[in-house]
Amino acid sequence: MLRYLTAGESHGPALTAIIEGLPAGLALPEDYVNRQLARRQGGYGRGSRMRIEQDRVRFLAGVRGGFTLGSPVALYIENRDWASWQEIMDPGAAARLDQRVVTRPRPGHADLAGALKYGHRDIRNVLERASARETAARVAAGSVARRLLEELGIEIIGHVVRIGPVAAPELDLIREMPSAPPGGAGKGLDEAEKEGGCGPGRPGGSPGVDLRRLREILDASPVYCLHRETAEAMMREIDRAREAGDSLGGVFEIRVYGLPPGLGSYVHWDRRLDGRLAGALMSIQAIKGVEIGLGFAGAALPGSQVHDEIFYSRERGFYRRTNRAGGLEGGVTNGEPLIVRAAMKPIPTLYKPLRSVDLISKEPFTASVERSDVCAVPAACVVGEAVVAWELAAACVEKFGGDTLQEMKANYQQYLDYLKSRIW
Questions:
Q1: How confident is the model at residue 316 (pLDDT cuts 50, 70, 90)?
Q2: Taking residues 129-150, what's their average pLDDT?
Q3: Which of 201, 212, 257 is nearest to 388 (CA)?
Q4: Separation of alpha carbons 251 and 167, rounded Å
Q5: DSSP 8-state assignment for residue 259
Q6: Angle at the Cα of 158 (from 31 to 278), degrees rounded to 5?
Q7: What is the C-alpha separation between 161 and 377, in angstroms, rounded?
């Protein structure tokens, strides 16, 4: 069983995480995790705190000489802003609890509900933990899971498809019409899929997608969008929102390649992988909707245009010409690329504050303003990659087990051989 817990406040000393269930022998350099942490802090529209933190992870336990030991892995991410908040956030009795008290709940945050639930008169006790700062620890944990998936030939890529009213050209899930070249160079994501594909005919095999090239395009995009013209329009929209003291939400998409059929289960509700993925994505701060494959669009179509027909050839085994299901059927991966999207609401902390009511005096006020972003959809995409990686790695650990990476990979290969015997 693969599991983890995080702890830490936004302005506390550090964020921490403990991971249990990793096999021994997994190569896990700190720089691998640090790259994902840096991506989470990037993206056009982020606030000033991103220039302060520059997150880096330290392994405190469970790793020696760059490899996991099979024991719990402890992660530590220092909050550099702690120096400015030490007197106020001190865990001990010396904490200045009378300083920077927040009594004005902000609409759209956990402020009021959290204060009522836990009996806090100072809303800072709520916002410090409810803050999206917590996602740095989740990205660190998810990066560890991602490293494990790579050993099994499973690759993840995420990209932003909408910010506010600006949407990227829709990627063709049917894969019968090639998409426009992203950023004006290279092949579109679905065009590459059409040429290579990845299905149960080649379980766990090469996805036929130039992921390295796509990652280069995304790294060069300030909003992590594959389409250059759309990215420029997104940045203009963010600038307009900043000038108006407003904020923007959007949608990101995550695709996973190399997944074998058979992860997850249909036999119990809590083992269905689609439910676990949706729950993980919905647990990210500000995410208000999740869809898989055609998602909500499929509700408006007849069944003949929603379901993926199954074909067979001796060369390819079982395969499909479409992937409207997004790689999941009945809560189980079917060997096609996993395609999930998540919708993020606009950040509720506005520099043109909304109206609220003081928690103590009950008098009307404009809501308190904490340092905030204008748009964090690109960062949320990175967090989304991390939580998706975690759920998929957990499903792999459940199915293939093993106390060492070598044992787990041997079990995985045995399963692939079994699939091939069933297909051919």
A1: confident
A2: 97
A3: 257
A4: 9
A5: P
A6: 110
A7: 10
Distance CA 141, CA 115 (A): 28
Query: Is beta strand 328-329 parallel, antiparallel or unpaired with respect to 332-333?
Result: antiparallel
**Lowest mean pLDDT across 69-73, 184-188, 361-365:** 184-188
Burial class (CB in 10 A: 0-12, 13-18, 19+), 92: exposed
Q: Helix and strand tally (H, E) in the chain?
A: 12, 17
SS3 state of residue 78: strand
188 close to 255: Cβ distance less than 8 angstroms: no
From the CB of residue 304, how many other CB atoms can be counted at a distance below 10 Å?
Answer: 7
Choose among 331, 326, 329: nearest CA to 264: 331
From the list 195, 198, 171, the residue with the least C-alpha distance to 182 is: 171
Pairing status of strand 338-344 against strand 250-257: antiparallel
d(CA 30, CA 203): 30
pTM summary value: 0.91
